[in-house]
Every structure is written in structure tokens, then in C-alpha cells.
Amino acid sequence: MTLNKPQHRCFTFLLLLPLLLQFYSVKSDLQLNYYAQSCPNAEQIVKQQVIKLYNKHGNTAISWLRNLFHDCMVKSCDASLLLRTINGIESEQESDRSFGMRNFKYVNTIKEALEKECPMTVSCADIVALSARDGVVMLGGPRIEMRTGRKDSKQSYLPEVEKTIPNHNDSTQSVLSRFRSIGIDTEGTVALLGAHSVGRVHCVNLVHRLYPTVDPTLDPDHAEYLKRRCPTPDPDPKAVLYSRNDLQTPMILDNNYYNNLLKHKGLLLVDQQLTSDPSTSPFVEKMAADNGYFHDQFARAILLLSENNPLTEDQGEIRKDCRYVNGD
């Protein structure tokens, strides 16, 4: 039997339909205002706590954003990152890739406020997502409408962390490949790296660009400034020696990151290489020229990241304490 073009397209669609339904069934388990009935004030409580913690400890906003990245890149957006080492569980926080992460204790501050309002209702995985959403706003970034309904993992994935979280000196193509594996394209990856617009870089992660000789892709004057911040090629990892990613607006999520890259002032090799790779450099230039475009692409990529393989329904649990599996 020979099919004409419309029939052929219909036949192809029918073959793909089961796969499409499977894909969208996973996504549909997450929804806007998931807690509208079970805990109507849930998202407002998270927002209030994020604002309160930001006013007391401004750097928490950056922590919420980094938590989302480190949690969702590893297997699933399931709060596995938050688990402590106990009873056979090895915490993902012990990985070298988690170096410099902090403020985990304040996740439980948010969780405790939610438990008072609605016991055993809001997952730690959703707290990770919602706190990142509200933290981005506190940093001057875009408002992102996030779906909720995630469940919490009962296990940790420490061995997977180094396989999935890019390192500071990875090649651009390696980084793109890792993000592509969870459905984020080149444009989205360049936008996500714009999160380096805020926060700081510890000297231990950038001295290889300063010593024994200065990386030729680094602006010489900026290199001299960095040497004053990081005066030794072998810094103590525990010492608080660091430089701000963005000296102009260090606590604002904006496109200064891309302008700095074009001026050869990127701190990490993984950042600066975006300007020399032909697949990423056009996006760097476009984001450097248009902060609104950067925010749009950043919001799109964060949304994709936040919905990476979520646990839903009976695939996980609602932890009472974000640090431990229920019963531990």
C-alpha cells in the first residue's frame, strides 16, 4: 500500500503518539499552583522566607540558584543534593564539584516555616525550585513561572556528580554536551552560564590562569588585579581568597558577565572559552548587547533545568527534614 503525503504524516504521528504521551505525562505531573488546595500559602511562605534570608544574608540568593543547578543536573530535580551522609547515604555535598557551596542550613529554615503551615505537604525538591525562582528575582533577574509537584529522592548520587556537573576548566563542547543531555540547547547553556554574573570565584579555581604565566586570553591589567587577590599559585582551599565575577554589579544577574567576557575578563576558563568557540560566541555577543534577551533565555533555560526528570506521585517522598530520608 502506498500512502499519500497527508496519510503518511498521520501514520508517522500515530507511531510517535505513545512516546509523546509518555513525555507529556511526566511533564503534566508538575503543574502551576500544585499546592493550591493542599497548602494555599506555600509559595508565598517560600517567597517571604527567601526575602527575609536575603535581607539578613544577601548571599543566600546566590545559594538558591546554585542549589537548583547542582540538584537538577544530577539525575533529577529531587533534592538529593540536600541529603547528609548517614546510614549508608553519601552526601553529594562531599564532592569536589560542591566546593564553596553553603547556606544549606537555611533550606531547613524555609522547610520549618512550611511544616508549621502544612505538615508533610511541600517537598524539599519544590523548595529548591521555588527558592531559586525567588532568589533570581532578588538578584534582579526575571520572574520565572515554575511548576511544582516534585517529590524527594530517598537516595543520593555522589558518584554521579563529577559525571554531570561541569568543571571550571572543562572545554566548551564538553559543557554543551552535558547540558544537551538534559534537553538544554547551546543558546540556553550560554544563558545559564550567565549565572556567573553573581557571586565569587575562589582563588583555587583560577590560579592556573595566573601562574606560572598569565593565560594569554586574560586581559593583562585584569590579571594583575587578580594576582593581588590571589597572590600565591598554591592557595589554601579553605582560605577565603576570591574575586568577584563581576566587579560592577556583583549581586545583580545581568549581562555584564558577557561584556566582561568580550573584554577578556572572564575568571574561569569555562567562561572565557565561550567567546572563542564559534557555536557559542554569537550568543555571547547577542546577550552582551541585550540584557532583556539574556533574561528571556535565562528564564527559558532555568525552567528546562528545573523540570529535569522530576520524581512525582509515588516515585519519591515528602521529607520532613530536608537533610534526611524519612525514618532516619
TrEMBL record:
Residues reported to bind heme b: H196
Q: Where would I find the Plant heme peroxidase family profile domain in this sequence? A: 29-326
Which residues does UniProt assign to the signal peptide? 1-28
Annotated Gene Ontology cellular component terms: extracellular region
Q: Which domain of life is it from?
A: Eukaryota
Free-text cofactor note: Binds 2 calcium ions per subunit.
Q: At which positions is Ca(2+) 2 bound?
A: D246, T249, D254
CDD domains, A to Z: secretory_peroxidase
Catalyzed reactions per annotation: 2 a phenolic donor + H2O2 = 2 a phenolic radical donor + 2 H2O
Q: InterPro entries of this UniProt entry?
A: Haem_peroxidase, Haem_peroxidase_sf, Peroxidase_pln, Secretory_peroxidase
Q: Enumerate the residues binding Ca(2+) 1.
A: D71, V74, D78, S80, E92
Listed A to Z, the keywords are: Biological rhythms, Calcium, Disulfide bond, Glycoprotein, Heme, Hydrogen peroxide, Iron, Metal-binding, Oxidoreductase, Peroxidase, Secreted, Signal
Disulphide linkage map: C39-C118, C72-C77, C124-C322, C203-C230
MF term (GO), any: metal ion binding
What's its EC? 1.11.1.7
An example GO biological process term is: response to oxidative stress
Coiled-coil segments, which residues? none
Read off the SUPFAM superfamilies from this record. Heme-dependent peroxidases (SSF48113)
Cellular localization per UniProt: Secreted
Question: What's the cofactor?
Answer: Ca(2+); heme b
Q: Where is this site: Transition state stabilizer?
A: R66
Similarity comment text for this entry: Belongs to the peroxidase family. Classical plant (class III) peroxidase subfamily.
Q: What is this protein called?
A: Peroxidase
Origin organism of this chain? Hibiscus trionum (Flower of an hour)
